[in-house]
């Protein structure tokens, strides 16, 4: 398998999952401005929208969209418990979290990265994002990870998205529960390895 990624982007989530799951995989960096891969390939031939992540499977098929990729990977290695078993309520709780992160947090941060957005619009985005971070902290509560004591693919995604705060002026110190959570996730060996491979530490 090959993961197309850009350092610190949402592709960090499946990168962490690949390492947590013990997969044999390759990485290929994508320049999101030029849409070229590190080996000179036009990335749009892999993903027409030019977005990361994309996971090229061993048979040549390409899977896109981070939440789909991480569930696919988790189901390949069920003994790791990176996702609850399909059909269980816990699995739907995982999907609930993945959708919340994707639609409420990921998109909320996304607008703050857009240089074309006027500052007035970014102020609105920050206000909306604050309410969603309040909700994320409330949902997490005192749990170690989003579903309890077991690290899942939702944790890889939440950690990735929360890490964007430092680039757009959203200080997690205002959400001590989320800040402590990020510290716990960051301490995991697979997460450390992924961060190092992407030049983020």
Q: Order of SSEs, N→C?
A: EHEEEEHHHHHHH
The backbone outline, from C-alpha atoms, is globular
Low-confidence stretches: none
Instruction: Write down the overall mean pLDDT.
Output: 96
Describe the largest sheet: 5 strands, mixed
- What assembly state would you assign to the polypeptide chains in this entry? single chain
Alpha carbon gyration radius: 17 Å
Name the structural class.
Answer: alpha+beta
Structure description:
This protein has 201 residues and is of the alpha+beta class. The chain has 2 domains: 2-80 and 191-197, Glutaredoxin; 89-188, Glutathione S-transferase Yfyf (Class Pi), Chain A, domain 2 (Up-down Bundle), CATH 1.20.1050. The protein contains 8 helices and 5 strands. A 5-stranded mixed β-sheet has the order 3-2-1-4-5, with helices on one face. The protein is globular. The relative contact order is 0.15.
Compile the SSE list and pairings.
Layout lengths: L1 E4 L6 H9 L5 E6 L4 E2 L16 E3 L5 E3 L1 H11 L12 H25 L5 H22 L12 H10 L2 H4 L7 H11 L2 H9 L4
Parallel strand pairs: 1-2
Antiparallel strand pairs: 1-4, 2-3, 4-5
InterPro entries: Glutathione-S-Trfase_C-like, Glutathione-S-Trfase_C_sf, Glutathione_S-Trfase, Glutathione_S-Trfase_N, GST_C, Thioredoxin-like_sf
Keywords: Transferase
Pfam families: GST_C, GST_N_2
